[in-house]
Amino acid sequence: MLTQAPKGTRDVLPAESYRWQALESKMRKAAALAGYREVRTPVFEHTELFARGIGDTTDVVQKEMYTFEDKGKRSVTLKPEGTAGAVRCFVEHNLYAEPLPCKMYYLDAPIFRYENPQSGRLREHHQFGMECFGAKEATVDAELILTAYHLLQDLGVSNLSVEINSIGCPNCRPVYHKRLKEFLGERINDMCETCRERFDRNPLRVLDCKEKKCQELTKDAPSMLDLLCDECKNHFDQLQKCLDGAGIPYRVNPRIVRGLDYYTKTVFEIVTETPDGKLTVCGGGRYDNLVEQIGDQSIPAVGFGMGLERVLMLLDSEGIEIPKPEWYEVFVTYMGENQQKAFALVQQLRAEGIKADMDHVGRSLKAQFKYANKTGAPVTAVIGDDEAANGTVKLKKMSDGTEQVVKVEDAAQAVRGMKE
């Protein structure tokens, strides 16, 4: 057990971490392009934040949270999603008093869900999320959708499309709930146990069931889109006009409800076609009442979350390679008693911005060359007795075997020239 990671978690090894770094770099660039700045919130929060914010009728709160008492007998929870923590941060630090909208993103944020590990989502996985507070217009909903869509497109993910829906607001949703419960009441006894549990607590979530039998039974369910109030309808119309103008593929899908109770109006998913069917890569929506639920300030908000593991899995499945960065630009070898001179040269090269290293385990010169070759360093440096005596270093270009001897102080410039 001591040498095995817990179920549903995995290590990111040194040989693959460059893939994460490349993905994170593109995510940061996409967020910055739209004016979003990074926020970092704690990995755990008071349990009440999630019970109140996410909703105590959701599967996340009821079944999937890692909750425990700390030594002060306070109930705390490892965060099962990123939005509630961002809202708490927004309220606690009075960010609503600053010019709005407040645009923030979080990256590589660990998310914890106690559920059976699945492809692209583990019990500990990591999310990139963008949240915008204080903007009520549908233009910001569209901005987030387009930012996520173009990011995935830029990464090379193919067969992308956007699915959108509106689930209304507290003004129009009660009428829909009543109509939906009437419809479901005639069929609920034939549905799965999960749907029967959801029927009384949150009938909207029944439409999110993945069981084929339940999907068939609810295929003719009334649509929220037919019962939207004027405000919600106008908002949804504006969103579609923005997406039409951007020219991206999207469709209205009345079945999208998302799994968290805080959503209002817009909900969306970005999906891709895979050999195994559709896969959701990104999901989000508007949560205009969540800030008020948590901090008594009525401020509209909208955001999304995107799993890093799932994106990397998609890149693998589509054969999209992220170029490996150079491990070293030069590997310094030495003969005899010249270890200290080799060490000094490595430090000099690093000081001039060259990625350099040397042998640290006492290899022979032949073994040093073999190791240098394994690192993929394009240039190998040699300090023998003659070089040490003359204050020079011999540089060898590994691709074609050409060599040159240069003064130690000119080594960095020479390495750069040999790489070109």
Question: Could you please describe the fold and organization of this structure?
Answer:
The structure is a single chain. The chain is of the alpha+beta class and 420 residues long. It folds into 2 domains: 17-172 and 228-317, Bira Bifunctional Protein, Domain 2 (BirA Bifunctional Protein, domain 2); 330-419, Rossmann fold (3-Layer(aba) Sandwich). It is built from 15 helices and 16 strands. It has an 8-stranded mixed beta sheet with strand order 1-5-6-11-10-9-7-8, sandwiched between helices. α1 packs antiparallel against α5 and α5 (138-155) runs parallel beside α9 (230-246). The mean pLDDT is 92.
Distance between the termini: 49 Å
Mean pLDDT value: 92
The helix tally amounts to: 15
Give me the CATH architecture of the largest domain, please: 2-Layer Sandwich
State the strand order across the main sheet: 1-5-6-11-10-9-7-8
Structurally, the number of domains stands at 2
Radius of gyration: 28 Å
Number of strands: 16
> Helical residue percent?
25-40%
CATH topology (level 3) name of the largest domain: BirA Bifunctional Protein, domain 2
Principal-axes shape call: elongated
Task: Write the CATH homologous superfamily of the largest domain.
Answer: Bira Bifunctional Protein, Domain 2
